[in-house]
Task: structure prediction
Amino acid sequence: MRQILLLTILIFQMSCAQAQITNLDDFQWKNRLLIIYADDQKSSQLEEQLAKISINKEGYKERELKVILLKKEKVDIWNLNENHQLDFHQIIKELKIEENQPYENLLIGKDGGVKLRSNSPFSNEKLFNTIDAMPMRQREMKDKN
Result:
């Protein structure tokens, strides 16, 4: 009986570890999201935004900010090593992104709400200032100290 219980617990832990991200709600209350939509893989705006992210990866990590790239009808999670099953068309529809535009950025809060939307890259300063002004982030910073 004890072996069956241990085996059941082990199987449960393995299945939880392999849980996949299937929609944006899987990030809610855990992560903020920077959604980057580019209709062209070689978009200069996309390259500019990724360069800005690369400059301050630690700032993104500290703010629990994940970056989701939407391009060529594919979804990539820039700073997450887990498998996912996010659907490009579902995200486009859910966030009301117009596919006829070349580029769009959205900042999504931990509550799932859109906090910023722009047709040009965000500076790290604008992103971080917006996030740091949010009540949940204020609590996080206070609790950290």
Notes: The longest strand covers residues 32-38. The chain has one domain: 20-144. Residues 17 and 82 are 10 Å apart (CA to CA). The helical segments are 2-17, 44-55, 57-62, 88-94, 124-132, 135-144.
